[in-house]
Amino acid sequence: MDLKDARDEISKIDMQLIELIKKRQDCADLIHRAKKEENIPVRDEAQRKEVLKRAYETAEEIGTDPEMTEEIFEILIRMNEKRQTELEI
Question: Disulfide engineering: 56 pairs with which of 28, 45, 66, 73, CB 3.0-4.6 Å?
Fold first, then answer.
């Protein structure tokens, strides 16, 4: 595989990641409704910790950088919290 092929492959993966981020954001709408019904605040610290722990441990298991993976998931969580907060308005 040459440089162009490798970059093309990364580009395809990037598009898949963006699509998955969109799916995750769509779930924020469903989560917001459920939280509203159960009178749970947007920021759920216990769930946040669980997601970050799962991301860290999974990254470790498969051999990728767990700290950087955790940072990515911090961003994903903030995106969902932002979306849920926007739905509050």
Answer: 66
